[in-house]
Fold each of these.
Amino acid sequence: MLVHAIPTNAGYEFAAEVRAGLTRAGQKELPSKYLYDDVGSALFEVISHLPEYGLTRADERLLRRYSDDIADRVAGPVAIAELGSGSGRKTRWLLEAFCRRQRTSYYPVEISHSALVMCERELSDIDAISIVGFEREYLDGLLEVAAYRKSGQRLLVLFLGSTIGNFDRPAGVKFLSDVRCILQPGDSLLLGTDIEKSSIELLRAYDDQLGVTAAFNLNLLARVNRELGADFDLSQFAHLARINEEVRSVEMHLESRRHQAVSISAAEVVVEFQEGETIWTESSHKYALGEIYEMARAAGFRCEVQWVDQQWPFAENLLIAE
Ligand code: AVJ
């Protein structure tokens, strides 16, 4: 696989965003995309196997069951771009279905280098596939993929795993509109969305008994220590999952167990935490089935089909660019 690597001002951006998020007035925050360094990506992989966290397995079941259906609906020569490929495991079924029909180009777009490498290892044995990976932010990568498009080739964008849920609702629609702007009418977007479920189930899924999600969350501070020379004492922060009823999301926070000060050398800042104060690290929004049709329309798509998993309510939505 050819990999286009990321331009290297990435470290500087990380420091700037950490500084901005931890020095702002009110709720402190760190962007959830930084959860996925090599350690974080590996921990998420473990989360996807936990009995409490059914999301990834539901996604995979749907892709496995309906891959032929999806490939038939997106007929003709197609280039497939995946935003956030992860290990690539759940994409296999879909790619195999497309490759049975014709030669297919697959362009994973992923900020984690190790995930890209894993993804290639996982998928390169498929017949009639060519893989070019982009170590990029989603929209930057998608722009480059669109520039590779050959005439007469359709583009299918995969945005699976309910990653869209990490945006708040307005930002989610804005993101879909940005994707739509890069596409041509008739191109498609396969969007995975986690469906609303009980608070009990959600809290179990985001605060599992083994503590893997806690480790996944705390790793963000460990990463700031490693990469920005900070001195976070991990034993003085606690993982917290809570429901935000108003916006219908599950939030992850890191709660300071005592009053403390942390110095972050590369961000040139010392941050003070009160006892009980939290850093907000992620929101995962949950959707009603009908709502996805409206979001699609607002972003310039029409939702053509919705496949729903019964075991763990989750939907795969096929959106067509209008
Ligand atoms: C990979 C973004 C879909 O929001 O559920 C898992 C990440 N966070 N457990 C999600 C996650 C806590 C996950 N996504």
Amino acid sequence: MSVWAVLAAAGSGERLGADRPKAFVRLGEQPLLAESLARLDASEWIDAIVVAAPPGWEEPAILLAEELGCGKVSACVAGGPTRAESVRLGLAEVPGDAAAAVVHDAARPLLEDAVVERVLAALSEGWDGAVPALPLSDTIKRVDGDAVVETLPRDELRAVQTPQAFVADVLRGALDGSDWTDCASAVEAAGGRVKIVEGDARLVKITDAADLERVAALL
Ligand code: C5P
């Protein structure tokens, strides 16, 4: 089966307070985008990659892929105003006969191939999609302003990460223009069956400067 990766890298990263989009902020010696791009390219499970770059940064993204020798990069598109829209634009470059789409956030650079293997294995078992997730250590409450409305049962909750894998046609059919925060939400809403697989604590999502320091120390 052919497996295509869509790398969502079009976020502005305002909370980092940098002079450039998050994907091009330095992580160690390279732009942040380099880490996930090189790891997807080296993955045993990925056949081709589409990058959704920050609008106006498609050229630097292509140059970076060339510099890194990422031969699996098939297209680089300008992303949209929301993550869901960036993924939809990236997915438009994935050929109709692709079997699976693996969507990953460039904001989670420390991608291990074992996680890609776990999410794809679920598709072979007949699931429409699979997401890596971790149990929560904090108790989560639903609130209304300052007031607690209810305490949610922690054992039933998971913190969900990327990469997320889907039967390519299922994901294509599910991204309907709504502003889903992750692709699995769209697939769930369309009636798809999504499996939870073991996540990876190293898949920290970089949101602010402290996250960047923490991940740089793990490189
Ligand atoms: O903004 P946030 O960190 O939640 O974004 C998660 C991922 O989605 C990041 O890798 C970011 O580059 C990507 N994204 C995107 N297009 C957007 C917003 C976010 O590709 N419009």
